[in-house]
Amino acid sequence: MCIFVRLGTRSHNDFIQVLNQKNEIIQKKCLEKINNLTKMNNVKVMLGDSTITEQKTFDPKLVMDYFQKINDSLKDWSVHDVSISNNDDLRRIFTKFEILEGSYLISGHISLQFHVLLYYKPDQRVIDCQKELAKIVDLTKNKEQKLSDNGDQFVLNKLKEMGYKDFDHQKLFEVFYENDEFREKIYAEIEKDAGVDFKKLSEKKTQLFNELDSLLIETYQTSSVLIDDSRLVSGEEGCLCTIDIEFVKHETKEGLFDPRKMSDTTKENILKRLKEFEEILN
After folding, report:
1. Taking residues 88-101, what's their average pLDDT?
2. Same domain membership, residue 209 and residue 223
3. What mean pLDDT comes out for the span 233-241?
4. Which of 167, 184, 214 is the last residue of a domain?
5. Long-range CB contacts (< 8 A, 24+ apart) of 71-74?
6. Is residue 115 within 8 Å of 273, Cβ to Cβ?
C-alpha cells in the first residue's frame, strides 16, 4: 500500500490517521496564532480626491517576526529564511523547514497570503502636489494644443523668421528626421515664443509624481482561513500550513511509500518531531 503522505490526506493506515490528527491540531494552532497577529487596526488615510477616511490594516512585520521565532526554535531542523514575495498587490510571507528521521524526510511550509491597498498619507502636501500637477497639465495641454493646431505651418513660419526661406513640408520632414540638433534648435525657439519651457515642466511633473509616490501608505488585508496550495497559487488570502513526509532512498526523495514498512522507532520519532513543532507554534 504505497501512498503520498501530505498530512491531512485521507488514509486507512492507522499511523497516518494518527499523524493526520496531530496535523489538524497543528493547523488550528497555526491559524489561531496568525489570526491574533493579523488583528485589524484603524489607520487614517487620504483618498485620491483628498477625502480623509479610516482604513483597517494589520502589521505584516509581526507575522515575519513570528515565523523567524519558529525558525530560531527549530534547533535541529534545516530552515529557510523567512521571505516575502511581492507581486503587485498580492504579498506572501513564508518559510520552510525540514528534518530527516531515519529514511523519512519531514518538511513543513507555513505562509500568510494577503493583499495590499494603497492610499495617501493624510498630509497637506498631497493636496499641494495635486494642485501643482493640475496647473502644469492645464498649461502644457493648452500650449501643446495650440502648437498641434498650427502643425507644420507653424514650424515653417518659424523657420522663415529664422532666415530659412526654401522649406516646404516634404523638406521639413526630411531635415527634422535626419538632423536631431537642428530639430531641437527649432523646437527650442518655438517653446521660447510660446512662453513655456516644456522640458522644465516635464521635469517638474516627474518630481511631483515621485513626491506623491513617497506619500503613499500601504494597508494590508487578509482572511482568517486556512488555504491549500492550489488556493495559494490562485491568489486567495489566508494562512497555509502543510507538512509532508517523503521516503529518501539513495539521496532521492520518493513521495510514494508504504507506511507499514516504517519501524516503530521511526514512527515514534516522527510523532515527537510533530509534537515539537506544535509546542513551538505556541
Report:
1. 94
2. no
3. 94
4. 214
5. 71/95, 71/97, 73/280, 74/99, 74/277, 74/280
6. no
